[in-house]
Write a structure and sequence with these properties.
Length: 502
């Protein structure tokens, strides 16, 4: 799709300038993500050292353009922007990326010119429209969009989300050094940074500096080809940023009383509990693409640990709602927290309250090697599977789409096995509250089941319980269950061990 977009805007190698590490294609604008994200990659010299700089253009849903971290204006850039749309907003996202703000304000008198918090006072000669409010947060962040009234005249904050890094301090002055605002383009799942994150290459090969386990869509390709050797000054600059400035920032430039907030911001950006980043566009260095790669790189940069990355259907709203019922029902019948039980059995640690417990449960269940599944009684006259984690799907040989429409009786083959299975389910259903953890209802062994391909497997340590239509409050639920006032809406299981017989 990016190649097709490049053809539309006539992006050709060397069409604007010579190629180099800071403009690998030598183009005026280059498509960076879809829909509607373009970059203007340029050399930027500091004491004769090319440290590179990148401007990003966001084409809003209404067709207007947002310019992020503006570079120098020239006729080819003006013409290219005119072909894309109308420049409506120009944003200088931190104290250092402001050199060309005045130029853009003059060139586009009808555009709104925005700065990070405090920039209007520092750069009083610029025709500012205003600033991103101090402490700006996305609506999904804890306490987010507190300043809703202050951005009514700005762009749509749900479409292009700002997050102010208000945790920083210059240890020598006691004031902010960058005071950066990072941004997330929702439609393309793209993160924009200036100096909070950088990605300088180690040689002429695109993203040669990245070492991660999951290699997806990054490295040299048509719109980001490899180039010749990087000048010594640029290489030395990379060394200084990676080996000197980075530890200085992480250890000394995050306020002591804001360390927890910084970690919350880092996880929100990195872990998918807020922004689901699939493309990173830094102002300095190579663009990174691929959800898994982005997560690994950001985890390393921010020194945070995220829950495992899982397929989106494992965290969909309907699945989360059912998992919540499973967890509450487990608590009701077994008196234990399902998240803690699965974590214990899987040999992993969880930090309850660190992030949404339900999201933690969903990602842990999806990624654990313990098979977990559930069927419901709501969609047909017989039980239909409604949930199966990856281990269960792999063990039984089904895709998610196949499994969630499958009658659960299909997991047995012979009439005798079907009769024994139904007897087991009825026993669990009729024994509403299992008061004894050692009772036969708590755990079953040596159950034979059949995979999709007809091969047979042996289940050991089968923990089965009912699923009730419960919400957060369990008060009174136990009495209703024991009296028969409410009936189960499904059943769930986690399995200690699976052995393949065929």
């Amino acid at each position: 799709m990016l190649i097709e977009e490049a053809k539309k805007i006539n992006t050709r190698k060397g069409s604007y300038s010579s190629v180099g590490w800071s403009n690998r294609l030598g183009s005026v604008l280059t498509p960076a993500a879809v829909p509607g994200v373009y970059t203007a990659d340029r050399p930027f010299y500091w004491n004769k050292i090319d440290v590179g700089c990148r401007m990003t253009v966001i084409k809003q849903q209404n067709g207007d353009l947002i310019v992020h971290s503006p570079v120098g204006i020239d006729p080819p850039l003006i013409r290219s922007l005119e072909e894309l749309g109308t420049v409506k907003h120009v944003i200088s996202p931190n104290y250092e990326h402001v050199k060309y703000a005045h130029q853009w304000a003059e060139q586009y008198p009808n555009a709104s010119i925005w700065g990070c918090p405090g920039l209007m006072e520092r750069e009083a000669d610029v025709r500012w429209t205003g600033e991103v409010p101090f402490g700006a947060r996305p609506s999904g962040f804890r306490g987010g969009n507190q300043n809703i009234d202050e951005h009514e005249d700005m762009w749509d904050w749900e479409e292009f989300q700002p997050l102010h890094i208000d945790t920083e301090v210059n240890p020598f002055t006691g004031k902010s050094f960058f005071n950066e605002v990072v941004f997330y383009h929702t439609a393309s799942k793209t993160l924009l940074t200036t100096d909070l994150f950088w990605n300088y290459p180690s040689n002429g090969r695109t993203n040669s500096q990245i070492s991660v386990d999951n290699r997806e869509d990054f490295g040299p390709w048509e719109l980001a080809p490899s180039v010749g050797e990087i000048p010594f000054g640029s290489t030395a600059w990379k060394f200084g940023m990676d080996k000197i400035f980075y530890p200085f920032y992480m250890n000394l430039m995050v306020k002591n009383d804001k360390r927890q907030t910084f970690n919350e911001i880092a996880k929100y950006i990195t872990c998918g509990c807020g922004w689901e980043v699939e493309t990173i566009i830094p102002a300095h260095g190579d663009i990174i693409r691929g959800k898994k790669v982005c997560r690994e790189v950001l985890q390393k940069h921010f020194n945070v640990q995220c829950s495992p990355l899982v397929d989106s259907h494992f965290t969909s709203p309907s699945v989360l709602d059912w998992l919540n019922k499973m967890a509450l029902s487990y608590k009701l019948e077994r008196g234990e927290d399902l998240l803690e039980v699965i974590a214990r059995e899987a040999g992993v640690s969880v930090n309850k309250g660190d992030e949404d417990d339900l999201i933690q449960l969903a990602t842990l269940c999806a990624s654990t090697t313990l098979p977990i599944a559930s069927h419901d009684f709501l969609r047909a006259d017989e039980a239909i599977y409604i949930y199966g984690n990856q281990a269960f799907l792999d063990g039984f040989g089904y895709s998610w789409e196949e499994f969630v429409e499958l009658p659960s009786r299909k997991c047995v083959e012979t009439d005798t096995e079907a009769e024994e299975r139904q007897k087991l389910l009825d026993t669990v259903k009729n024994t509403a509250i299992n008061k004894s953890q050692s009772s036969e209802v708590d755990r079953y062994d040596n159950l034979i089941r059949v995979r999709k391909d007809g091969s047979r497997i042996l289940l050991k340590g089968v923990h089965l319980w009912n699923v009730w239509d419960l919400r957060e409050n369990l008060d009174g639920a136990k009495a209703k269950v024991e009296s028969g006032t409410i009936k189960p809406i499904g059943q769930a299981v986690w399995i200690s061990k699976v052995e393949y017989l065929d």
